[in-house]
Amino acid sequence: MDAESLKQYLADSPPTIVPLTIKPHFEALSDKEKLYAHHISVASFAGTRIVLRQISPESEPIYDFIITLHKHCNGDYQALAKQAGFNADELQAYLDYAAQFLGNLGNYKSFGDSKFVPRLDPKRLFALASVEPKALKLHEQFKHSIFADHDVSKMHLGYPSAGHVSTYYPDSPDITKEEIAGVSDFLESKGLLPENTRVKKTQDGYDILIASASDNPSAEERDLKESEWTLGDGKKVRLVFGDYSKEMATITEHFGKAIEYAANDTQSAMLENYAKSFRTGSLEAFKESQRNWIKDKGPEVEVDVGFIETYRDPHGIRGEWEGFVAMVNKERTRAFGKLVSSAPKLIPLLPWPSAFEKDTFLSPDFTSLEVLTFAGSGIPAGINIPNYDDIRQNIGFKNVSLGNVLSAKSPNEPIPFIQPTDLDLYQKYRDPAFEVQVGLHELLGHGCGKLLQETSPGTYNFDIDSPPISPLSGQPIKTWYKPGQTWGSVFGPIAASYEECRAECVAMALCCDFSVLEIFGFGDGTQDMSNEAGDVLYAAYLSMARAGIAALEFWDPKSRKWGQAHMQARFSILRTFLNAGIEFCQLEYEDKENLSDLTIRLERDRILDLGRPAVEEYLKKLHVYKSTADVEKGRRLYEEITTVEPFYENYVRPAVLRKKTPRKVFVQANTVVGEDGKVGLKEYEADARGMIQSYAEREYV
Q1: How far apart are CA 579 and CA 385, in angstroms?
Q2: Which pLDDT does position 403 carry in this prediction?
Q3: For the chain, which residues score pLDDT lower than 70?
């Protein structure tokens, strides 16, 4: 790989390392609540190796290498450098890489899915490995794959048949996209949910690897009593239980222990169903845990654990392991409670008829949380779960905003692309604007909308004799979801990004309503762009436009592939702003060669009459195509607006790469049970050494 291309794949120097501050909130818990939090924290982090194995073949040995060297030198990295003959710069390059690796739980960015490589010569890494025999053996396993590949395709996660990396399809380099789709569609027809599976191509067919502590659960415990089939082409499909069995056993054990400290019967039932799911591989048991979870309203300690988000599976249906444990911030939660109670008045403001909306808005919990533990490859700012459409439509969902993630800052963080005249306002109001945006995105964005379905043969959740009229065509709808189909299965690889875009657009439309801004403490509900509420609204639109520019970092010109669902969505919203006309939004620059002075001009006083209508028109199309399973028109719309044209590829993207700032990685505390049986909190320095130590002390991983 040439030196210029390599630059975008080098590990951050330095990475932005911030603490996930939690101590006051944790110490406010009772002893019983601390034990509950402890066991679920351990269960969450016990899935660390699952995440590593879901990312790349080399991630697990690299992890072991980092931990082995830490234990070898007992955290004395100056002594390690001396032993390896490293100078200060080489030691720092290693520590920077190790911190970024642990912050992403793998050697591909959790936000972007592109590989990052050490800023070290391979011979120097070998010298470091040579200080310890176990480290040297581990180095042998990854010595080539830790560095840049001459094939750029291998620097990105994606379908193996496109030359990308994906360990959702382990040891199957020749499995095609069509084969993945075929076996996935077959399993869907059998009613087997895919989130906790991987697919391995064999000589005579496919093994479906199911995550479970047991490698042979009884037929009664499984979601399907059958476990082997022969397809029409003679290939066999086999269910193979026990993927990640050691890790799943530890996870199951600690869910069992947590039951003793549950606050109520609903929590106990939730934990029992979690344990059953992780022991047997049953996702029906997991869905039952999520039903219990939704009913557990306002707990002091909020948790959710499992194979949740499907962003990193190139096929968009298999989930990555994650788990969180958090404490409720009651003051901030009150504001979100007002937003929940206002939802029935706000949803009718969205640009579609009632036939495309749930019959009744299922008021969810909306909680501001302070995170103790977030195990996985990255930490979001907000979450709306569960992701199962039938539960969301019939029972409900929960929204959480992660307060200490939102507020985490690194000092003197540069802010490119904002005009100097806007910078003070932007810095003052970007956090409040982002909190408003996250609230609307999670609660109303992901929480609104109805999938028009034939729920079982001959049974519909709409009047089939007088179908809803599409607001796009003015004609009765002609498409809907068939029995067994889900949003994810129909829209496939674009589903995750498309849905994030729809939710972002809901937020951008509704943050223009000044009654919403009043809920969050800005203004008195009167529409006035010149007051503080107007400042927050302007900052929200500026933030989205800036994110749309920065998104180009996550698009790869070689594969012509977006590597991050949210950033693809934000680029499309920037394009929507720009399509509203130069009277509203324009990219400005004097330097036409390399756009070194690129900034956003966004007219504050045209947000309401130009910006919002443009967003709403785009949102209406996104929503109706999703509601009616019109994947053909939905895909065409989304792919067209997220196509990176030559100007963005050749001018804007290089300017973005020159000014990109490292994404934050978080050092998290550990919980420790003392000799008195009580749980204490151990915090670490917010630097690379602290990050490594925090993982090294999780002996159960």
Answers
A1: 33
A2: 87
A3: 411
CATH code of residue 174: 3.30.70.2600
> Helix (H, G, I), strand (E, B), or coil: what is residue 166?
coil
To the query of whether residue 247 is one of the catalytic residues in this protein, the response is no
Q: How many domains are there within the chain?
A: 2
| Active-site hit among 58, 132, 272, 442 | 442
Q: Where a domain ends, among 209, 244, 279?
A: 244
Q: Is the Cβ–Cβ distance between 240 and 202 less than 8 Å?
A: no
Report residue 599 as tokens.
């900034």
Q: Is residue 406 part of a domain?
A: no
Range of the domain at 235: 162-244
- What pLDDT is attached to residue 99? 98
In a domain, 458, yes or no: yes
pLDDT, residue 1, reads 80
Q: Is the peptide bond preceding residue 483 cis, with omega within 30 degrees of 0? A: no
- Choosing from 185, 213, 244, the residue where a domain stops is 244
Q: 77 lies in a domain?
A: no
Strands 670-673 and 679-682: antiparallel
> Locate tokens 């690897």: which residue?
209
pLDDT at 198: 98
pLDDT at 158 (0 to 100): 94
What does the pLDDT read at residue 375? 98
What's the pTM?
0.81
Please check whether residue 638 lies inside any domain of the structure: yes
pLDDT for 464-513, tens place per residue? 999 999 999 999 999 999 998 989 889 988 999 999 999 999 999 999 99
Neighbours of 258 (CB within 10 A): 26
User: HEC string of 576-613?
Assistant: HHHHCCCCCEEEECCCCCCCCCCEEEECHHHHHHHHHH
Distance CA 384, CA 463 (A): 29
Beta bridge partners of 412: none
195 known member of a binding site:
no
